[in-house]
Amino acid sequence: MKKIEKELEEYFDRLWPINRSLTGKGNRESLKIIKEIVALNISEIPSGTKCFDWTVPPEWNVEGAWIKDSSGNKIIDFEVSNLHLLGYSEPFQGKLSLAELKKHLYSLPEQPTFIPYVTSYYKRRWGFCIAHNQLLQLKDEVYEVFIDSILNDKGSMTIADAIISGKSNKEILFTTYICHPSMANNELSGPLVSSFICQALKKREGALKYTYRFVFVPETIGSIYYLSKYGDYLKENLIAGFVVTTVGDSGKFTYKRSRTGNSLTNRAVETILSNSNKDYQVEDFFPMGSDERQYCSPGFNLPVGSLMRTRDGKYKEYHTSGDYKSFISFEAMEDTIEMYLKVVELIENNCKPINLLPDCEPQLGKRGLYPDISSAAEKTKNIEAIQWVLNYSDGLHDTIDIINKSKQRPSLIYSAIKSLNEAGLLRIEQG
């Protein structure tokens, strides 16, 4: 895989200043940029659309928002940071005392230098978010407040997906969200990593065993709508899936399992992580977090996990202005893409090999299966991989089982299965 750190950074810089939310022109603008990487199918879902127990909210757009002190100086400005405005603030214009204004200000006393990310999607209110240190410095005077926003009941929610067709209609899902304003790890890392995974797999279209579905939606309401439309199809056809979020920092890999403990998703990710020589941790499913809680809800119980770096809520910059460009690493993002592609490779190669000569070992030499290489150690590894595959090609074990039992590199097991199949010693059944 070619180095793409520079491309990741270039797209990040273009996406960073855009104000994203559940709805609005910022989401459309963001998807238009992402469409340069991925051939997206973009859909507009009308506000008011019912999806299970939820309703698509009015479309929210902001033209400007600020607070001025009594001297006319802008002390808070949406143009400086889109995190300053409470998400889904209704329009407002007026003059308030400090005491009145404070009822509409949100800060983090425990993290006084950060602007918090706060929203009010389903109850009409207005407000501003401010670093606590700045809040403490506000003088007891009259402030002018201006919010030029629109909540349009006749608007829409923008979503997108991309399908890469494989030889089978069985699917692998990658889903990520586009609904946060300027946050690096908790927003932009997910869409960027998903997009470049999609780009890499698109180059292999026609050779892929499975079909791949990439979804870009606002968190929660977007996935709920998507499941209301495609959930029954996914229950029939989805064999593995991933929520791609918080994948840009330099922390160790964290895998949150799907609700179904022995899913292909869990087995594949944990096998690749255990063979990665990287630090990682694995967590059981829990019903909080990102959109995995929708895909893994009891009515669907889809095999969807999440391979992350440092997960949500586990770094102090989470949902604050501290989640900035300097917090993430484009090298780490590229590393995450490569890790996901290794998981895909394992899923693509997973099968149940059946030994066609199970009565004792077949003679390998006359079939040219002793590698003709100079390295005795490498020769031994190849032969060992072949012997592991032959012994466990009993119809009860798949590729993942054999990798984990043998402690061999996945690539060696893939190669051994391929060689034995080509030599007529194995029959391949789907895993």
What report would you give on this structure?
This protein is of the alpha/beta class and 431 residues long. It folds into three domains: 247 residues, 3-Layer(aba) Sandwich (Aminopeptidase); 94 residues, Glucose Oxidase, domain 1 (3-Layer(bba) Sandwich); 80 residues, Orthogonal Bundle (Arc Repressor Mutant, subunit A). The longest helix is centred in the last third of the chain and has 20 residues. It is elongated. The two termini are 27 Å apart. The strands form five sheets. An eight-stranded mixed beta sheet has the order 1-10-12-11-13-16-14-15, sandwiched between helices. Strands 5-4-9-6 form a four-stranded antiparallel beta sheet. Strands 2-3 form a two-stranded antiparallel sheet. It is built from twelve helices and 18 strands. Helix 5 packs across helix 9 and helix 10 packs across helix 11. Helix content is 32%, strand content 23%.
